[in-house]
Specification:
2 copies of one chain form a homodimer.
Chain A lengths: L7 H17 L5 E2 L1 H8 L3 H9 L11 E2 H12 L5 E6 L3 H7 L2 H4 L3 E8 L8 E2 L2 E5 L3 H7 L4 E4 L3 H13 L4 E4 L12 E4 L2 H14 L9
Amino acid sequence: MIGHRIPEATVNRLPVYLRALAEASSSSPTISSELLAEKAGVNAAQVRKDLSHLGSYGTRGVGYEVGYLMHQISRRLGVDNELRVAIVGAGNLGQALATYGGFASRGFQVVATFDSDPGKVGHRVGTTSVRPASTMPDVLLELKVDIGVVTTPASAAQSTADVLVAGGVSCILNFAPTTVVVPEYVALRQVDLGVELQILSFYRQSEVAPVAAGE
Amino acid sequence: MIGHRIPEATVNRLPVYLRALAEASSSSPTISSELLAEKAGVNAAQVRKDLSHLGSYGTRGVGYEVGYLMHQISRRLGVDNELRVAIVGAGNLGQALATYGGFASRGFQVVATFDSDPGKVGHRVGTTSVRPASTMPDVLLELKVDIGVVTTPASAAQSTADVLVAGGVSCILNFAPTTVVVPEYVALRQVDLGVELQILSFYRQSEVAPVAAGE
């Protein structure tokens, strides 16, 4: 089954399973779909269906082998090799991301930070020194950056994305509160923290559980 | 049609439309579904379908009235009145969120920040002074906090969520890289930044566009 198209909703849950498996790996070499479901905040039938897309069916009465399943999910997500991350915008959010413990433990290495503000250039952020934004075209190629994280103001987001794409970056995670456009061959995710709060607000006032997205 | 159940995928796009409309509002009093779609990064048929869930159908040849549509979406999202936010965990990410410009402009006011580290208590973060985490039970009720944002380490996330729920908070946005459990009447969203990168990584290596989640 490996190689077939995996539904978006399943892809979105695979990293959550991976995180839950990492938490569970110290306590037992196997895990039931029920326990994995509980740790991931979904139901057991969903876990079994999602993992069947990886060709993983578990063993009746035993469940899944934790280490092997982590290997399978990591490989399918492409995080079995370390990916190189550049953060553009060394403000509060950029600094928070550069020092975020959850990246390194999950296969992402922040190799460069950039800012257009001369007052920020040269400052230590996480394990990097902030470089001038003007050096991006050379540095992105030199350091073979895989993923660009945009934490600039909205007004600079599109031009930053353009420079990242020209520098060979194949994935962009955009935190700036505006929509950016990239060529089709570039993977793009937008994370707008104001949007997240507004979605929450909807469910608060409607006081109904979300309708699960279909597959 | 107002009051019927809106699909999760539509709810997730409404804040993006609202942001695009705010960007467009200075240039024209009306907007076509095509232009709104372009600004929101979706297609026009999707826009028309999503907005029909609000009972908004636009006018042929004219499009949608920007101001009225913003009012409709804001009301449906419950952000037409200001919501009060508390941030728990005044590390880098908590500080980034407390000073994030995109909140205030979209109906969210950060009214309190908390940390369990005495070294952080009393420090200015955004418009608040960091309070001791031990004061949460009283302060949450006193300030009538609507939304709690969890930016603690993973190990403190569940206990923090429990205190937020006991303090009457009806929405929780969890950034800690672990799954927390809350009662059904509490709206919960989990934003794990490592998960976002792993999802990106999947689309990078598979080099296919995401399969859109159905409705």
